[in-house]
Amino acid sequence: MKQKETWGFTLVELLVAIAIFAVLSALGWKVFDYIAKVKTQNAMHENKLGQLQESYQQILRDTVQTVPLTANVAGQVQPALTLQNNKLAFSKTGVTDPLNQGVAADERVEYVYRQDEQKVYRLKYPNINQSGRDQPDSSVLLSGVEQYQISVLNPNELTTWPDSVSDLSSDAEKQRLPRGIKLNLIVNGVSYEWIFSLLNTDFLEEKKSVSTPDGNQGVSS
């Protein structure tokens, strides 16, 4: 009687198949892990780029709305824009009051860099006239800032404003604005140079033409 032939896999064939499957699985996992890491890196890059764009747009809005109005802080008249020790302070307009709550149209803004935190803060005082004890609204303008340098352009680059030629006994000199500001930044290892124009140089003349109800001109002093 002829014995029936049987078909199957030998132990060697099974071991070879398992080895091939293990190699393919390892390669597949490496590809998957690489794709996941690239996706994470792209998401982080997009987030950082979004923060940079938001910061740039905020500074652009501030510079467009900068106005030559002096501020009164604790009885001391401050120039419309000051730059001292890498700290910028300026008066701006454009605040809206849709609910008619008596919110002032003008406010005072400061940019302050804290190196220990690697952050630039935007401090906003809701009125350009302050008691000196007012608490500003604070928000992070930009994070991950390894180096920060701010200067004004008039047209030469200056790290202090008002400049040395300003006569601060004159109201006109206190209200004088430079032509622009310049920021040099290193954010997350990348260097940036941002330049913004100050456009509202004619604002003061328009403001002087509008009297307040008490008969005074609508300009801070």
Automatic annotation (TrEMBL):
- Keyword Coiled coil recorded: yes
Record family assignment: Belongs to the GSP J family.
Taxonomic lineage of the native organism: Bacteria, Pseudomonadati, Pseudomonadota, Gammaproteobacteria, Moraxellales
Query: What membrane topology does this protein have?
Result: Single-pass membrane protein
Q: Which protein is depicted?
A: Type II secretion system protein J
Q: What Pfam families does this protein's entry cite?
A: N_methyl (PF07963), T2SSJ (PF11612)
Question: Which residues span the membrane?
Answer: 6-29
Q: Which domain of life is it from?
A: Bacteria
